[in-house]
From TrEMBL:
It comes from the Bacteria. Pfam families: Acetyltransf_1 (PF00583). The lineage of its organism: Bacteria, Bacillati, Actinomycetota, Actinomycetes, Kitasatosporales. Coiled coil: none annotated. InterPro entries: Acyl_CoA_acyltransferase (IPR016181), GNAT_dom (IPR000182). It comes from Wenjunlia vitaminophila. This is GCN5 family acetyltransferase.
Amino acid sequence: MLMRHVHDTEADAEAVRAITAAAFDDPPDHWPHERAVRYRRRVRHLARTDPGGCWIALDEAGGDALGVALALRREGTWGLSLFAVVPHAQGKGVGRALLDRATLYGRGCLRGLICASSDPRAARRYRKAGFTLHPAMRLSGVVEDRTGLPDPDGIPVHPGSAHHLHLLDSVDRRLRGGAHGPDHEELLRHHRLLVADTLVGSGYCYLRDGRVELLAATSRRLATRLLTEALLLVPHGTEVTVADLTAEQDWAIDVGMAAGLTLSNAGYLCVRGMRPPAPYIPSDAFL
């Protein structure tokens, strides 16, 4: 097995997409064009910002891609954006080698975050790496009862843009100990940004195609208002997803249930050197 850094090229980005598709039984030819483009952009973004944390494993004989790990560091907070191994290479040490390289990149970071699937092998690896595993939940479905959502309560929410980057990073530092920095610029390319900025606190939410990608706020009241506004903006009949919710995000569960969404178990939020940020809904790509 050969290990090398993921390069900022279309070829490597497509190789990572193929690994992901095989590992999660999600055929790449079933991906909508927009999703494939967005995924390759994510890979190339991290290859540029965090070359030391992005690793690909290759078969030494034929050069076939076996697995990938993409890790990032943001102001003392380390995160694992992607960890995938193709089925025929699982259980052969490929995943362990990749995770070792990715976690080494986080050496010196005080905090760590991973949005993990329910795969017991991955959970075991993360626990051995020193992470605390918090069971996570997902809200999904169609917003059936908009009248049941919480009242706006006088808190204004307005569209955000690159002009709000300092506000976003400030909220990040307060909640997770490190700003997302360049990740906000990438998120803005593909998502609608909502911002709440009041005398008593601030917050933001990214939304795309019914999925809440990332939400952070300095109070539960602001977080509730942002999530409510996001759900109200989803077109009628569109499937909604709000994922990676731990027990600390019961405010989000209350909003989702009021909207008629279904709650289910879904993997783990893994943390090291910190408690799960709250009120906060992480991005599984940028944490």
